Design the sequence.
C-alpha cells in the first residue's frame, strides 16, 4: 500500500524534472502551432513494439504534419508501466504502450489474458484479437478510469524455462515460479502446487542464477534479449498463457480530434499493430536460433496434461468475474 501511494508523487517529480530540462511531456502542449503527442513505453528502441510506434509516428506526421508532432519516449525514461498509466490519467501523457497485466488493476476484463489455456494457440489468439466486438469490450473497459484502448501488440506465448527439464505438471510441484503481479498468475502457479514469486522482469536473471526462483515464464525473446538462456537449461513449450500489450490513450484525447484527424489516428493505430506484430514474429524466429546456439534445449511436452490441471483455475475465475463471460464466449465461438 505504501509503494502505491507514492507513485503519483514520483510521477509529479518526474514531470518537474523533464520540464526543467526543456522537455515537457504535458499532453497537447502547443509548440510552433503543433500539438505534441507524447507516447511512453518501457521497451527498448530495438523492440518490435517500438518499431510499431515508429510507424505510427511516421504515419501521423505524414498526414497531419501541420497539426501534430509525435514524440515517443522509450526505455522506461518516463517510468514503469504503472507510473506511465498514472501520468496518462493526470493528463501529462497522451499515450502509453503497456502490458495487459498492468491494466488488470483498472478493469477485470484484462484478466482474460492471464487465464491459463483460454486460447487454443497463438493463431487463435490473433484471430480473436481481430474481432471488433472482442476488442471494443477490452478497449472501453477502462474508459471510466480515464484510459481508452486504441490498439494491441502481440506479446508472445508464455512457456516455462528452468535449469530443470519440465515435461509434466508434476515437474513443477514445489518449485518457485516467477510471476507478474496478477491474481490469475498467482492462482495458475498455485494450481500446479508450486510457489508464486512476484518479481520485476529485470530481476529474473539474478534470481534464477542465485536460485531465488526455479522457473520463469516468458516468450523466447527473453532468453536472448535478457540473456535468460545463460541461467536456464531447458525451455518447455507448455503454452499456458498468451498475453497482449496494449496501446492506450485518454477518452478526452480522442474526443478533441476532428473527424478527419480521428480517422487518420485510427489508421495509425492499426498500422502500429501490424508493423509491431510482423517484427515480433521475425524476432521470435531469430531468438529461437540464438537460444539454441547458447546451448538451451527446447522441450515439447504434452500440453493437454498441463491444460487439464489448469481447467479448474480457469473455470473458477470465469465464475467469479462476470465481466469475463462475454469475452470468453467470443473466444469459444472462434474455436468451434
Sequence:
Amino acid at each position: 500500500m505504501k509503494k502505491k501511494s507514492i507513485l503519483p508523487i514520483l510521477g509529479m517529480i518526474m514531470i518537474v524534472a523533464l520540464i526543467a530540462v526543456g522537455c515537457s511531456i504535458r499532453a497537447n502542449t502547443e509548440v510552433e502551432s503543433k500539438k505534441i503527442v507524447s507516447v511512453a513505453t518501457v521497451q527498448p528502441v530495438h523492440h518490435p513494439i517500438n518499431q510499431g510506434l515508429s510507424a505510427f509516428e511516421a504515419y501521423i506526421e505524414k498526414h497531419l504534419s501541420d497539426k501534430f508532432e509525435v514524440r515517443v519516449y522509450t526505455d522506461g525514461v518516463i517510468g514503469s508501466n504503472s507510473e506511465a498509466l498514472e501520468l496518462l490519467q493526470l493528463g501529462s501523457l497522451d499515450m502509453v504502450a503497456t502490458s495487459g497485466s498492468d491494466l488488470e488493476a483498472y478493469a477485470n476484463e484484462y484478466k482474460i489474458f492471464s487465464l491459463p489455456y483460454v486460447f487454443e494457440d497463438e493463431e487463435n489468439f490473433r484471430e480473436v484479437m481481430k474481432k471488433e466486438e472482442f476488442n471494443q469490450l477490452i478497449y472501453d473497459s477502462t474508459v471510466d478510469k480515464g484510459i481508452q484502448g486504441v490498439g494491441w501488440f502481440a506479446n508472445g506465448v508464455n512457456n516455462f524455462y528452468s535449469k530443470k527439464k519440465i515435461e509434466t505438471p508434476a515437474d513443477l510441484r514445489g518449485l518457485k515460479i516467477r510471476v507478474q503481479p496478477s491474481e490469475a498468475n498467482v492462482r495458475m502457479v498455485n494450481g500446479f502446487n508450486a510457489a508464486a514469486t512476484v518479481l520485476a522482469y529485470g530481476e529474473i536473471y539474478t534470481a534464477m542464477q542465485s536460485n531465488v526462483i526455479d522457473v520463469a515464464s516468458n516468450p523466447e525473446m527473453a532468453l536472448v534479449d535478457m540473456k535468460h538462456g545463460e541461467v536456464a537449461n531447458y525451455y518447455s513449450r507448455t503454452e499456458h498463457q498468451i498475453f497482449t500489450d496494449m496501446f492506450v490513450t485518454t477518452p478526452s484525447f480522442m474526443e478533441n480530434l476532428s473527424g478527419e484527424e480521428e480517422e487518420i489516428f485510427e489508421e495509425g493505430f492499426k498500422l502500429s499493430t501490424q508493423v509491431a506484430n510482423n517484427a515480433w514474429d521475425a524476432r521470435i524466429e531469430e531468438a529461437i536460433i540464438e537460444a539454441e546456439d547458447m546451448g538451451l534445449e527446447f522441450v515439447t511436452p504434452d500440453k493437454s496434461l498441463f491444460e487439464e490441471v489448469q481447467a479448474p483455475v480457469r473455470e473458477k475465475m470465469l465464475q467469479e468475474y462476470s465481466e469475463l463471460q462475454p469475452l470468453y464466449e467470443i473466444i469459444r465461438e472462434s474455436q468451434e
About this structure: The CA atoms of residues 30 and 36 lie 6 Å apart. Residues 259-293 form the longest helix (35 residues). Confidence is low (pLDDT under 50) at residues 1-5, 19-31. The first strand starts at residue 30 and ends at 31.
